[in-house]
Amino acid sequence: MSDIAERLNQIRERISTACTRAGRDASSVELVAVSKTKPVEVIQEAVDAGQLLFGENRVQEVLLKRPLLPSKLRWHLIGPLQSNKVRKILPQVEMIEAVDSLDIAKDINRIGAELGLHPKVLLEINVAVESSKHGFGATQIREQLEELYGLDRLYIQGLMCIPPFDLTPEQSRKYFVQLRTLRDELEKIGGAPLPVLSMGMSHDFEVAIEEGATLVRVGTAIFGGR
Ligand SMILES: *Cc1c(COP(=O)(O)O)cnc(C)c1O
Q1: Does residue 163 have its Cβ closer than 6 Å to ligand 1?
Q2: Cα 24 to ligand 1 centre (Å)
């Protein structure tokens, strides 16, 4: 078995154990293999090991790699999106995970309509209120939710967050709780389900699962360092 296959098996095992611990069904969590900076040969190894869902943080990498890999793969854009790249990326990915402002949501909505698409998106929340980070603040998302729901091409499926990097998994837990709690509140305010919570990375995905993650974005623990 290749190293990547072995690590993927271990991650799947750990996801399943975390689900059991949290009293959740293992099928309620999906693994996004974060393949940024990794060449297609390496990604193909993960495909051979049964992984079909991949996350990239740059538009350019999706455009380069996707045509060289099997068409059955599903891609999520997990990094910030600039308005001048919306038209290129929308037809290529299953989900835009990091919609971080009303402006970019409007662009995705408008261009989605022009292309005849109904883009699936997640709203990125700046949980730690770091000025260096992208995303909606909690107050801002409450104020802008109605306008976001007015963008009728968008399927707003849930929320995502990236807590500060230098925390232990237990320190990250409060941010995962915060995202879940905010989701519950926004479902009430907006009257629409937000079933997807994208949270948890290589070092803290198990805690994220305990707190309700439905997508975990794991790179280093599968592919090694970048
Ligand atoms: C790189 C990246 C990840 C994966 O991080 P690892 O620590 O390598 O697992 C997850 N989410 C986002 C948004 C990323 O940019």
Answers
A1: no
A2: 24
Ligand 1 binding pocket includes 220 (Cβ within 6 Å):
yes
| Tens digits of residue pLDDT in 55-94 | 999 999 999 999 999 999 999 999 999 999 999 999 999 9
The CATH number linked to 133 is 3.20.20.10
pTM: 0.97
Q: Span 103-129, mean pLDDT? A: 96
State how far the alpha carbon of 119 is from the alpha carbons of 21, 114, 122, 151, 156, in Å.
34, 12, 10, 11, 8
Asked if 89 and 62 count as a contact pair (C-beta separation under 8 A), the reply is: yes
- CB-CB contact of 97 with 51 (8 Å): no
* CA 191–ligand 1 middle distance (angstroms): 31
All residues at 6 or more sequence positions from 161 whose CB lies less than 8 Å from its CB, including other chains: 124, 125, 126, 127, 135, 175, 176, 178, 179, 198, 199
CB-based contact 102:123 (threshold 8 Å):
no
Task: Indicate whether 1 pLDDT > 80.
Answer: no
- pLDDT per position as a tens digit, 159-186: 999 999 889 999 999 999 999 999 999 9
Number of domains in the chain: 1
Residue 165's pLDDT is 87
Structural domain boundaries, residue 80:
3-223
Q: How do beta strands 95-99 and 215-218 pair?
A: unpaired
